Structures are given as structure tokens and as C-alpha cells.
Amino acid sequence: MLKSMTGFGRAETTKGETTVVVEVKSLNGKQFEVNLKISPLLKPYEFDIRNKLQQTLLRGTLDATVNIRQNGATRPVVINTDLAKYYHSSITSLATELNLPQEDMLNVLMKLPEVVTPATEQISEEEWLEVEKVIQLAVADLDAHRLDEGQMLAADLLLRIENIGTYCIKVRELDPQRKERVRQRLEGLLAEHVGKENVDENRLEQELIFYLEKLDISEELVRLENHCRYFKEILAEADPAKGKKLGFVLQEIGREINTTGSKANDANIQQWVVLMKDELEKAKEQVLNVL
């Protein structure tokens, strides 16, 4: 199971004259970060809301909005007359200066920030429990989107790793030919510059073995295959939060690919190494979106 870090969740419910709307959008991020916008009535519960989001969503950059709308007059309000008078004075002066009409001033004042506020700044425990349910529904909706996208990510990542494994097999097939070419090239250089009759065959054989061992890539290919196998095992794990672990394994895969290319010193093998690097970069881009 794999989950993406990106997704969107929304939930809305109406009970009596109160409507609660929760929207949560998630993007990729190294840690858990949330930009939370809530109604003033929910300020005492801000810490609880953040905890509930993190418990399920774990990681990512979140934009979360929790709104409470009163559809009727069930909740008493307070009019801040001092603030309204200040607004009125400023608006009147501006309207006079700009020679603008001043009709319907009261309607304008009532819509300005903080002029009309709820008589109480906190909702009841029963109302909070209803808000909590809506938050859970929105988070579940987002989590479902993450899971759907995660399935597509898993399929793409598996394809990239299998391609790297296929190219690794191609390199193995070319390796014996590479070693033989190295041997022939060294023997040819010695024959050209020293003369074949002057070459100590036993010493030449020792030097060839030493040189070929320095260029040997069999260990790198074994480790590369093991890393690819481990990557696929992690993909199959039940834990949905494994993006960081997959990223670390990709780093090890990249290290073995680079070492193989540099030690091989062979144009034919280098072509397959380039293809492996291309698949690796695509996998790295996708892993950035994994939870």
C-alpha cells in the first residue's frame, strides 16, 4: 500500500441553523506543516484540530479551513458601536473628499470586519463534537484521494525499478566482452611498444588480473540488484508512510549505478547506465510525492 501526499478532502453538514464546512488540501512536504484557517468560535479548539489532522495525514503541507455558518438568528450577536462610529467617520470623510454618495451607510457598516460579532466567543462541547465529526469526514475524504493516487505512484515506481533491473541484466551480459576487449587492448599495446617476444607471460597474466579486478563491476551489480529487490519489498509493505525510506534506497541505487558507469569504462555498457540513470531520476521525482 502506498499513499500520495497530495489530495483534497471536503465535508459539510447542517444541523439546525448551523452549517459546518471543512476543506483540506495537501501537497508534498518533508515534514507536517498546516496553514489552518478557522472560525473565531473554534479558537479554543485549534490545538485539537491540528492534532487530529496530523494523526491521520502524518506528513505534507496542508491548507485546512474550518468554517461555522449561522443560518438563522439562533446565536445572539453584539454590535461594536465604537468601531462602527470610527468606520462611519472615516467613510464619511472619504466620501465627502471624493464627492461620493453616502446612502445606505448602515448596511455598509454592518458588513465591515468585527462590527457584528457573536455574543459568545466559544461553541458548546456538543457543538464541538459535531465539528469534530465533520473534520474526520473531510480527512477521510482526503485520505481516500491519497490512496487512489498512491496506487498510480506505486505502479509507476515499480515500472522504473524493474526497468533498472532489466538494464542491469544487459550490463551483465556485456561484461565478459568488455573484459576480453581490455585484455586484447593491453596485449596489443605491449606487443606494439615492447614486442611480443619480450613480454613475460606470467607477469602479464598477473598484471591483467590486477587491472581487471580494479575494473570489476560484479559487486556493484549485485548490490544494485539487492537494492532494487529491497525497494520492491518496501513498496509491498503495509505501512503507508514510507516515502523517506524509498528515497534513501534510491540514493543507494544511484550510488551503485554511478560506480558501475565509472569503473566499466566501456561505451556499450555506458549506454545502459545512462538508461538506468534516466529511470532513476523519474523514480526520484515520483518518490517526492509519496507519503
UniProtKB/TrEMBL annotation:
One of its GO terms (molecular function) is hydrolase activity. It holds the Pfam family YicC-like_C. Transmembrane segments: none annotated. This is Uncharacterized protein (TIGR00255 family). PANTHER family: UPF0701 PROTEIN YICC. Residues 172-290 form the Endoribonuclease YicC-like C-terminal domain. Residues 2-154 form the Endoribonuclease YicC-like N-terminal domain. Belongs to the YicC/YloC family. It comes from Chitinophaga ginsengisoli. Keywords: Endonuclease, Hydrolase, Nuclease. Its cofactor is a divalent metal cation. NCBIfam families: YicC/YloC family endoribonuclease (TIGR00255).
